[in-house]
Design brief:
A hairpin with a 4-residue loop joins strand 4 and strand 5. This protein folds into two domains: about 90 residues, Ribosomal Protein S4 Delta 41, Chain A, domain 1 (Orthogonal Bundle); about 90 residues, Structural Genomics Hypothetical 15.5 Kd Protein In mrcA-pckA Intergenic Region, Chain A (Roll), CATH 3.10.290.10. It has nine helices and five strands; from the N terminus they run αααααααβββαββα. The chain is of the alpha+beta class. It has a five-stranded antiparallel sheet with strand order 2-1-3-5-4, with helices on one face. Helix 3 packs across helix 9.
Length: about 200
């Protein structure tokens, strides 16, 4: 299964944000990568800004180009504002929901837990990270996986109460996807309208 395995701090520095979460290396070098990263003052074109925003969304949610393009097509066919629907679809991915519930410390770790069959949806094992979670579906950790150290550590440090669209029982390791979040609920710093403009060219 294809996924990004390159240097994550370098990607975060390119966007000027710690898009993968807390990163001590990014905090030390929070300027663009490259020999002249600290001194670069080049003006970015309109296309460049739009492309950068799309790339940021892709890296943030761990989605490859073809997947992202398909999600955009789906969003453009749906009712509502295309950019907002796109983010709602990204937030509804199973790997993202597992991450938001606090079961995994990062989206990459959540993707791995799903792929390795540690997660169930409505009592059935689902090993597809891109699975689209629907309202009122129950996401849980498999009984035999509850002792995994990565899950225990992540749950202990999680703050799922910050998300109004989720419920989570930390003792039972069972969560519920109450509803698809609205744009106001999604904390990611993504200018989705720039992505829409890019695909509209």
């Amino acid at each position: 299964m294809a996924r990004f395995i390159g240097p994550k701090t370098k990607v975060a520095r390119k966007f000027g944000e710690a898009i993968y979460g807390s990163d001590k290396y990014f905090e030390r070098k929070n300027y663009p990568p490259g020999q002249h990263g600290n001194n670069r003052r080049r003006k970015t074109s309109e296309y460049g800004l739009q492309l950068k925003e799309k790339q940021k969304a892709k890296y943030t949610y761990g989605v490859l180009e073809k997947q992202f393009s398909n999600l955009f097509k789906k969003a453009s066919r749906a009712k509502g504002i295309t950019g907002e629907v796109l983010l709602e679809l990204l937030e509804s991915r199973l790997d993202n929901v597992v991450y938001r519930l606090g079961i995994a410390p990062t989206r990459a770790a959540a993707r791995q837990l799903v792929s390795h069959k540690h997660i169930t949806v409505d009592g059935k094992v689902v090993n597809i990270p891109s699975y689209s979670v629907k309202a009122d579906q129950v996401i849980a950790v498999r009984e035999k996986s509850k002792s995994l150290e990565v899950i225990a550590d992540s749950v202990a440090a999680s703050s799922v109460h910050d998300f109004s669209w989720l419920e989570f029982d930390q003792n039972a390791l069972v969560g519920k996807f109450l509803n698809t979040p609205t744009r106001e609920d999604i904390p990611e710093n993504i200018k989705e309208q720039l992505i829409v403009e890019l695909y509209s060219k």
